[in-house]
Design goal:
Layout: H1 2-14, E1 21-25, H2 30-36, E2 41-44, E3 62-68, E4 71-77, H3 88-100, E5 105-114, E6 124-132, H4 153-162, E7 167-173, H5 182-190, E8 195-197, H6 201-209, E9 213-223, H7 234-257
Parallel strand pairs: 1-4, 1-5, 5-9, 6-7, 7-8
Antiparallel strand pairs: 2-3, 3-4, 5-8, 6-9
Helix pairs in contact: 1-3, 2-7, 3-6
Bound molecules: 8-iodo-guanine.
């Protein structure tokens, strides 16, 4: 119900009855949003039913409506995380609302730690599959959602046509807010994770449960703990995101133009 109420508010406040695509812009991706196009309507998230107040650092807290080649696109600047104390349902609410507002495709972006050898800081990586290690789910009741091809193969092929240098990886979603120990990173590598972060997996599950297609892109903003022996800092994470913004913006715009 709350998703439908938020969807009505979005349609009313933007003047756009349906937005066919929704993009969640995570840490480091906000600057890329400017390359997508100038919004013709913007709403502060707290003004929408059920939207919390995204944490200050790295997240904009705005919903923008932009048009890209006749496609009405909803940009969700920032997200809510489990580590901020939100429930799984609150974490996925913006995605639920965007789908209720018409989104058939949900593009989830995030910043992540790189685990696999060869990943470089500043590199965007397509999400090919995920490990939900949050021990949480946004689903309630007997909603046995199939997650095979949850990360849409056709959309991944499209993204790779646009940027052939794009690699793919398995994203492990953890609770956070602490980063992993080197031993935990070795464990995640053994489990088959290439990337690690604190978001995205619940949103993907919710989107699939509502029949939307999902494309995910992680920006590697640090090499995971122990991969280089360096210490991790959130400030570095944000700085790396800013540096990669032009390439990310070009990629996002290319995807949205198709
Ligand atoms: N859990 C986890 N989340 C992250 N987010 C970013 I940016 N880097 C990391 C990381 O190394 N571990």
């Amino acid at each position: 119900m709350l998703a439908e109420q938020a969807a009505e508010a979005i349609a009313e406040r933007t003047g756009v009855p349906r937005h066919r695509v929704a993009v969640v812009l995570g840490s480091g991706w906000q600057q890329a949003a400017a390359e997508i196009g100038a919004p013709h309507a913007s709403i502060a998230m707290p003004e929408l039913p059920g939207f919390g107040r995204p944490s200050a650092q790295g997240h904009g807290g705005m919903v923008h409506s932009v048009t890209v080649n006749d496609n009405n696109v909803l940009l969700l600047m920032g997200r809510q995380h489990l580590y901020e104390g939100y429930t799984p349902q609150q974490v996925v609410h913006p995605v639920s609302a965007a789908i209720a507002a018409g989104a058939e495709i949900v593009l989830l972006t995030n910043a992540a730690g790189g685990i696999r050898g060869g990943l470089r800081v500043g590199e965007p990586v397509l999400i090919a599959d995920h490990l939900n290690l949050t021990a949480r789910t946004p689903l309630e009741g007997a909603r046995f959602v199939d997650l095979v091809d949850a990360w849409d193969p056709e959309l991944r092929t499209l993204a790779k046509e646009l940027d052939p240098s794009l690699g793919e990886g398995v994203y492990a979603g953890l609770l956070g807010p602490q980063y992993e120990t080197p031993a935990e990173i070795r464990m995640l590598a053994t489990l088959g994770a290439d990337l690690v972060g604190m978001s995205t997996v619940l949103e993907a599950i919710e989107a699939r449960s509502r029949g939307a297609r999902v494309l995910g892109i992680s920006l590697v903003t640090n090499l995971a703990a122990g991969v280089t022996g360096q210490h991790l800092s959130h400030a570095e994470v944000l700085a790396e995101g800013q540096a990669a913004a032009p390439r990310l913006g070009k990629l996002l715009r290319g995807i949205l133009e198709r």
